[in-house]
Amino acid sequence: MPLGIRIFLVYALFIGLTGYFVLSTVMEEIRPGVRQSTEETLVDTANLMAEILRDDFKTGTLNQNHWPQLLKAYGERQPNATIWGLPKNQVNHRIYVTDAKGIVVLDSSGEAVGQDYSRWNDVYLTLLGEYGARSTRSDPNDANSSVMHVGAPIRDNGQIIGVVTVAKPNSSLQPYIDRTERRLLIYGAGLIGLGLLFGALLSWWLSAALRRLTVYAQAVSEGRKIEVPHYRGGELEQLATAVEQMRTQLEGKAYVERYVHTLTHELKSPLAAIRGAAELLESDMPLAQRQRFVSNIDSESARMQQLIERLLNLAQVEQRQGLEARVTVPLAALVDTLLDGQVARIEGRQLRVELLIPDDLEVLGEPFLLRQALGNLLENALDFTPVGGLLRFSAERVGEQVEFTLFNQAEAIPDYALPRLSERFYSLARPDSGRKSTGLGLNFVEEVVKLHKGEFRIGNVEGGVQVRLRLP
């Protein structure tokens, strides 16, 4: 299972369990919390009514006064109120008064007058001077039919002479409880959903960051060039830097070993030729023969120098992971400069040169590397073009790239050699001398094109050989 999914599952489990416990705890506290608030209001109302009814209760004129009509009118009122979005169309309080023996003397519902309520806790405890309250079901089989009753004492000179009880059915509170629970569930589910979305985004970001680092490590292990991933601080940036340093050290060591071995192998032949010629020069020989051996020493020394220089240039390019500069380079002007440097060879071999590159066409890249790469292509074309042959330079814009083409009139490249032309140290014999080059020129060109994120192709066309480069 991918690391990102595992992180997300652990995060989702944590969020789910936390949300469940928090929501369940809060949901369990909603109902008692609402009832506690309602009970506190009932206490205030009962004590207020006890003070209002005290004088009439003392004189025994409670039922003879206007209170029964007032309480009846109160019970029939329709507030038509909207409380937090919920309608309230009737009053739900029931008020009744009992005497010192617990006998109901006044009831807003008119149902219990004359009944003995002394056994109920709201009356019984209040008459004892304690806090009297109870919750009783109207229907013993219906848990939602419970009614809260809160009693308050009617006092005369400190003596309890009666009780006022204010009752409210819990069912009248249920809409508010349901609304609160529903809103809490919606908000809770929304927060959990946002938490999971944040966790998914965090897991995706972390997986993507690690995936980039994995792709980089795989590319390095396969020897492909790739830029090190960039992160904005933190452990990922430190990890990327550490991997890059490790790659540099390991590749540097292996690179040096490989190049020392290659250089040693390639220098054996010219060194052997120079040593053999030097040994022969120590003996007496005709002047013409002596000059031939001296010429051999000079050509082999030049070959060694050229090999070392090209190896150093190639090593510099191969070790780079990207361009040091990206500037616009006029292509026609660059080719003109290269042709000026080879004017002696071109005129000496009476070559025809066609330059079909628009003056305003530019490529984006590093000028020094581009000059070296195109210079290698020109030298390679000059080596194989016969006397009086044709060189044609052309270029055109293709989308966001420029396609550069170099055609040189020459014999076709053998089929077996085509796939290997850009291999290091692979070279074909030159038509004039029969000797091979260092075999590093086209390899260098390919590396430079890769650094520029371009394409390099070489193949046979009618009448000669054509090289195509695609550059940004």
UniProtKB/TrEMBL annotation:
It is found in: Membrane. Its EC number is 2.7.13.3. The keyword Cytoplasm does not apply. It is an enzyme of class 2 (transferase). The chain crosses the membrane at residues 6-27, 184-206. It comes from the Bacteria. Residues 262-472 form the Histidine kinase domain. It catalyses: ATP + protein L-histidine = ADP + protein N-phospho-L-histidine. Residues 204-255 form the HAMP domain. GO terms for molecular function: protein histidine kinase activity. InterPro entries: HAMP_dom (IPR003660), HATPase_C_sf (IPR036890), HATPase_dom (IPR003594), His_kinase_dom (IPR005467), HisK_dim/P_dom (IPR003661), HisK_dim/P_sf (IPR036097), Sensor-like_sf (IPR029151), TCS_sensor_his_kinase (IPR050428). Keywords: Kinase, Membrane, Phosphoprotein, Transferase, Transmembrane, Transmembrane helix, Two-component regulatory system. This is histidine kinase.
